[in-house]
Amino acid sequence: MIRKKLKIIQNIKLTAEVYCCVLEGDIVQEIQNPGQFLQIKIRNSYLRRPISISSFDKNKNQLTIIYKVLGTGTAQLASYQATEYLDVLGPLGNGFDITTLKNDDHILICGGGVGIPPLYGVLQAIKASFPQIHITVVLGFRTQAEIFLYDAFQALTPTHITTDDGSFGYAGNVFAAIPKAAHFDAIFACGPAPLLQGIEQTFKTSTLQLSYEEHMACGIGICMGCIKSTNNAKGYIRLCKEGPVLLHNPREEQ
Fold this sequence. Notes:
Elements: E1 2-13, E2 18-24, E3 37-41, E4 49-57, E5 62-68, H1 72-78, E6 85-92, E7 106-112, H2 117-129, E8 134-141, H3 150-156, E9 159-163, E10 170-171, E11 186-191, H4 193-202, E12 207-212, E13 227-229, E14 236-238, E15 245-248, H5 250-253
Parallel strand pairs: 7-8, 7-11, 8-9, 9-10, 11-12
Antiparallel strand pairs: 1-2, 1-6, 2-5, 3-4, 3-6, 4-5, 12-15, 13-14
């Protein structure tokens, strides 16, 4: 973990509430896996804001965060301009691990809403390391007006979109676009709790890497404010430290 000031290259609006911010600095060289996050200090705010790293480019020394304006902190973040600096801690947490994948695997990348950004970095990493791998991508949104990153995902692999109101793509949640008889060797998912619970209940024989969304305070495992029960031998874990990505491997549990 490093504390650094990162230069804002751009901070632009993608939808009415979602922004894309590109940051530049040496901290990029410390990123180990997609799915890690930053703790960002916002002016006039005591607590830092945890925001996942959507993608990164070590050659350019740049990373991208994509965030939704949900309160005063993220509203303040949206007001920052290019050439300003953000005080960040990071990279933090455990991200997605793609090292056990094989080129003949069938994998699912699935996310909803603000859980989608870190999955773009996962897709980039997988495509770079396993060009022949079979990938299904399903992204869920409430309505067409809230869709973001679709073109970026689509440029890498065919991407299915679902909307709750049926205004674009499949009508319903992400499961509307997943073949009922499909089997996946590995699943990478991030999004609201009902989505992750549905993945766990539906794909009991797949290796799952699930990234959990949770309110965090310190972001480094001290305050114990993001505790989650794992329902296994690990007991309770800190999502900011042992997560936010948790692994469920049925092969190892048999």
